[in-house]
Specification:
about 300 residues; mainly alpha; 13 helices; 2 strands
Length: about 300
Amino acid sequence: MLEMKVLFLRSLLYACVGILLAGAVVRADPDDEDADPDVQPARPQAAQIVINDQVLDGWIYQGSGNRPQFDQLLAVKIDWLKATCQLTDAQRGTLELAAHGDIRRFQDQVDAIRQERDKGPHDQNEVNRLFQLVQPLRLRFQAGVFSKGSLFSKTVARVFTADQVARYAAAEQERRKFRYQALVELVVMGLDRNLVFDSEQRTRFTQLIFDETAAPRRFGGDYDMYYLLYALSQIPQQKIEPLFDEAQWKALAHMRSQYRGYQQFLTQQGYIEAPPANPPAAAGGAAQPAANDAAAKNAKEQQP
């Protein structure tokens, strides 16, 4: 869909990608009496795109091009765990060792992408291929280098006591709740600018979202807001329509119809749990409707 194309082009524009023409077009001057009429002008060669470090970093690190200071991120994480779970010195040392393993692994993967990039300059097809190679790394960075599946998170589960695990789980749940609340309020504020809610509508709408939706599997990516707009599209119409007047509902219903097809794309991005591989058949033996057909098409169009 359009959003991935915009992201791709924004990364290129942000870093001012240099596009070099490999070769010059040679044309005979029609006013040059010495020009040989049998000499044909040379064909222009395909444009070659140079992907510099700033562009590549922008792809990986969400458009800013600023490489993160992983040691600082680790220090913040350790300090939070120390305050929350009362880490011992031995536990801290073990966790820091595991985290540095995650950092090295991530940086090795970045270096592998750079080596692939250094085979350029590239034409547009090769740039698209390189952009796709970056995506798993980009998603990993968005989820957090020390998040679920990392050596760090596995070490937490291994070295923590039962009491520390309970403290950690409670603190994570509270942090996710706070983050989701901030996301909901941000989206409601954005919709309010266009639909102009009164105070009661704003309060009831916000509460309905909390009651009828759940936080995504992960936060921190480019599509947090898209997840919530998709979640809004899943709220039953009979619960949401009575909150608004006719004009407001018409605009909101149009938006809901746009985001209903995002399930497959958001699943691919890690925001939604993947559905079972073999869903049960509907009553009477008929297969379930292919609810994700439109989403699959939209996700394909997201590619640059």
